[in-house]
């Protein structure tokens, strides 16, 4: 679905789901493979902090985590 949205110019939204999803490497890998196609990423504070911890970002500051997530490379660099 994410790649199809990329081809057609549609918007792709994704949710971090739950803290355990990002803490389990195979599940996190699936999310991270889709992130370059994601236009909108949703998650609550706990999910954001769990993601940061899982990838080794030494912070619990949610605004910082959100900013860092927003700076991840997009599959289509022309999309902003």
What's the short version?
This protein is 51% helix and 8% strand.
Notes on the structure:
The chain has a two-stranded parallel ribbon with strand order 1-2. It has helices at residues 2-8, 19-23, 25-34, 45-54, 62-70, and strands at residues 13-15, 40-42. The mean pLDDT is 89. It is mostly helical and 80 residues long.
List its traits.
80 residues, mainly alpha, globular
Give the strand line-up of the largest sheet: 1-2
Helix/strand class:
mainly alpha
Helix content: 40-55%
Low-confidence stretches: none
- What is the strand tally? 2
Element order: H for helix, E for strand: HEHHEHH
Q: In percent terms, what proportion of residues is strand?
A: 5-15%
Major sheet:
2 strands, parallel
Task: Give the oligomeric state of the chains in this entry, treating copies of one chain as homo and distinct chains as hetero.
Answer: single chain
Envelope shape: globular
Distance between the termini: 19 Å
The whole-number mean of residue pLDDT values reads 89
CA radius of gyration is: 13 Å
Describe the secondary structure blueprint for this structure:
Layout: H1 2-8, E1 13-15, H2 19-23, H3 25-34, E2 40-42, H4 45-54, H5 62-70
Parallel strand pairs: 1-2
